[in-house]
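Hi V.,

You were right to ask for the full record rather than a summary. Here it is.
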Amino acid sequence: MSSDSNNSSTGTANSSKFDEEPESISQLAEIILANLSTSITVKLPVTELDIDPANSPQLENIRVQTSGIPYDTYQALTDLLHLVRCHCSELMELRSKALNNEPILHREFKDHGELLKNEGIAIINGLHRAISQHIRLVEQTCGELMYTKIQEVIEEQPEQGLTLEERLRALGISDDVWQDLQMAIKIMSRLKEYLHAHVAAEKWWQYACETIYSIEEFSKAPATVTAPQIHSTKEKILQLISPIVEYTTISSKRYGHEIMIMQKVNYFCVTIPNIIEDIERIFAAKQIIKRGQKTSFSKATYYLGLATFKYLESIKDAFDQSPADAIEFVGTSVGFRAKATALCEGLSDILNKWTSSRKSGKAEKNRMTGLKGMTSPSNSRALVDPSEVQLILLGLERNIDMVHQLMISLCYESINVQSTLMDIKEVEKRSLRIKLDLSHDLCRRVHQVLEENVDADGNVIETNSAIL
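Predicted structure:
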């Protein structure tokens, strides 16, 4: 396992920049970009590893799940560009009104600035939430049981003069597990650096917007804003995003729109066969739920599987019936993600509050009996601990979100819209239809995976329905 030597001090190196108030919009622009691009330029240590999935399934899961962070970051940067360009177009409309002697009140002008600030913050917050989700994944991967064992070793053997690693080995925790845990902790630390940088980016974005739209700048005209002042504001905003324009242009070959879709398609093709299997494993974990909530847990899992199957079936139908109605396609995808997220949260709540340690212990004994004689444990073995089920559930939620993102991307690609920021009302107003072209390799691969899995998934759902 290679050491983590890549840019480990970048977070602290940048922090000295934050302590000094920038003297110009150009400096603000550089600081915002430096912080936002941290999750591209400062790599996670797991990307440098040659992982054997059989020996380190948890690390492999982290590597796969976090591989999209640079693409998510690039998308956030391009979304900011799209936002600013739309905003500048609106400013030009205001300028035209001012040139025609229509009064532009300060309040109206300031509201435009508030909108730019808030929508920019929302984009940065979206990236922040994604990184937070990755941190939760790593925390789950480290495992409650592993932390418990370490704590037991520290408390029970404090005076033996052994290192923590030696004490863990004495407890029966292998070198491989210890190394994986160390790497997971390093990954979590790096992800928290990303969060720190994104918080700083949000702070400076807010400061930049408030500076550009400061009322004090227009004190000579207390009631209205003039055309030259509007033009000056637009130039400052363009100056603010100039470094982002340059950065995304350079980065587009690696993280651009087509590459992002290709990456999502690759993920989709690997993930779809596993989604229903993961739901089956969660369904089987009802054995560790207390009697009062067992039925609720089983039903929620069944409804999650049913919703997932119906959604995948609707995607397949959209391919078969192409061109399809764009607003219906997008609405189905958005509705499915909302329903799936709510069901996952409900299952997580039951796992947190209503598991039986007695049943879990009994299930663990049964699993150990079943594993006797096996050279290596199966990745689909029964889930007997709440933390194991939570880990599968968290990965499932991430996979569902990735499928949703891919479908939205394919939709906008088919109607020649490069950004997912188009308002749903605009799609509806234009009565757009999507054509999922099966002559295109990426669409053909998605359709093939759906054809191979949708019918089989339906059979699984029917089986689970029969045993509810």
